[in-house]
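#onboarding

Welcome to the new folks! Below is a worked example of what a typical request in this channel looks like: someone posts a single protein sequence, and someone else replies with the predicted structure as tokens. Don't worry about understanding the tokens yet, we'll cover that in week two.

Example request:
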Amino acid sequence: MFTNMKQLFTSSNKDLRHRIYFTLGALMIFILGISIRVPGTEDVTSSLGFLELLNTMGGGALKNFSIFALGIMPYITASIIMQLLQMDIIPYFSELSKQGATGRQKINQITRYMGIAFAFIEGYAFAFSFLGSSSDPIKYLYIATILTAGTSFLLWLGDQITQKGLGNGTSLIIMAGIVATLPQMFIDAFNGLITFDGTTQVITLGIIKFVLFVILYFAIVIGMIFVQESERRIPIQYANKSQGVYGNQAQSFLPIKLNTANVVPVIFASSLISVPGIIAQFVKNETYTLIVQKYLTYTTPVGFMLYVFFIFVFSYFYTFIQVKPDEFSKNLQDNGGYIPGVRPGEETTKYVSRVLSRLTVLGSTFLVVIAGLPIIFSQVTSLPTSVSIGGTGILIAVGVALETYKQLEGSILTRSYKRGYSRR
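Example response:
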């Protein structure tokens, strides 16, 4: 693995290094933009609550109320909605999804327009929520326009990274925002756990706590990597394939990841449970606001159980959208393939559905633990809210980092194979 990565610094991979430099430069622009506050506004001093995930994914941009406060979350929301609409809900989008590259290009264009529209609506809502109802409506429009422009610029920047950089531009921007908050988080943890004006015993105990915090944090990251890379391989044989060297039929696998849905269920659950809070900010009704604070927030037992329930439901829903056992069974049968010991057709569909259900239970439990750790951690410690263990943000960063590394390593291997073949 490391031998392949060393080839990155050879003269033959100069263009690949330029792509890395371009990506780092683009991400640096994003980091600088986080600190540019929207003119006429101040930092958000109140608790963000359900918006903490958006703030984390934007590198603290929402807390700073910067021009990138919305990040690219409106585009992600639009992408999720477009995926749902392609499930035969609206025939037009279903047809586009079957038209290959042309259809995907059209879907991507519609998704961007929808994302920009969401950005304007969210920008207006944030301006109204954080500035109060006493401000001038023209100012709300002014702020919403700036935030929408910031999201539009990030979408363009993501396209540039995809075309001229390492690819996956929007994902890398999200990862950069999450990673940008880590140094400050460790500084806050250090200051919160270690008190230098106390006795030697107190200082030593604080240092031990901080070291344990760092070890626990990286142990959770390693656990995330293990789960993200875990998969169940269902063996598949094709009757029309030629036999192998020892007379056995050629065999392939259907890899099903343990966490097929990734972080989408958590985003869905966070969005759904945040709806009552958004309504409370606009309604300004004391009774309704009190009900929301007591029962429909993450920190309350009822709200936490609802959060967990939504994650499980959306995990099953989204996983079966991604894999589609009935379509897989049909395509496998049409291509002369079968699962050893399982009859083609209905039994194959049931078998894949059963395997998928079992894996989803484990994957959903993993998501619940990761999403619930920061909530529990904030309740049992007196550390600042910026300090957390686990969380959806770091899960996203780990997933994007793994995917980017695989793409980079694959590109180096492909180039080395081509050079080796050309010498023959």
